[in-house]
C-alpha cells in the first residue's frame, strides 16, 4: 500500500460566478521514503496539490488516502490531528514568529499536541539542525540559511513521516540553498518521505522522482537518479 494515494482529485474554487479549476483529476501514488519534486508553471496547481497532500484543504471531489486512511472529507479538527502527527511543513518565507526565539518557534507544533517536554524536544530538534547554540536568538538575528534551518527543525520536531517543502530555497543564495538541499537529501536517506514544490530544475535534480503539472493535470511522472546523501543533520 502506498503511503499517499490520490484518485481523480479535483479542486474547484468559486469566486462569485467564476469557477477556477485548480486540479483536474490528479491521481498519484507516493511510496514511503520517496523523494518527489512537483513542478509546473504558475497557476498549474502545484500549491493546491501541496495543500491537499498536507491536509490543509480538502478536494472538491476524488479521494486522498494517507497511510490507508481516507482523509478526503475529514473535518477540520481531525485534519489538524493528522497534520500534527504525520506531516512537517517547510515554507519559502520561513513563517517564523519575529518576536519569538528560535527555540520558541520550534516549540509551536508541540504546543498544539500538548507535549509536556516541549523545551527538551525543541532543543533536540534545533541541535539536530546544527543550531543548538542559536536557540535563544530571534529570526532577525539569524541569516536566511539559519532561519530556514529553524523552520526545518520546527517541521521535524514531531518526528513526521512526511515533510512537505514549498519552494524551500527560493529566498536563499545558491550556496546556502545547496546546503539546505543536502540536508533534505540526508533526511530522505533516514527514511522520511520528502515532497517539494519547486520551479528550479537544480532543486528537482536532488529528488528521486519529478512530476510536472500543467493546468491542474499531471503531464509527466518520471524517475530521476538516486539522490546522494551528503548533508548533515
Could you describe the 3D structure shown?
This protein has helices at residues 46-53, 76-86, 102-113, 118-128, 144-156, 174-189, 201-204; strands at residues 4-15, 18-30, 35-39, 61-66, 69-70, 87-91, 162-166, 193-197, 209-214, 217-223. With 233 residues, it is of the alpha/beta class. The chain has a single domain (4-223), classed as P-loop containing nucleotide triphosphate hydrolases (Rossmann fold). The strands form 2 sheets. A 6-stranded mixed beta sheet has the order 6-7-8-3-9-10, with helices on both faces. Helix 3 crosses helix 4 and helix 5 (144-156) packs parallel to helix 6.
Highlighted features:
alpha/beta, 233 residues, disordered C terminus, globular, 28% strand, Rossmann fold, four-stranded antiparallel sheet, six-stranded mixed sheet
Specify the biggest β-sheet. 6 strands, mixed
Structural class designation? alpha/beta
Total count of strands: 10
Count of DSSP H/I helices: 7
What name does CATH use for the topology? Rossmann fold
Beta-strand content: 25-35%
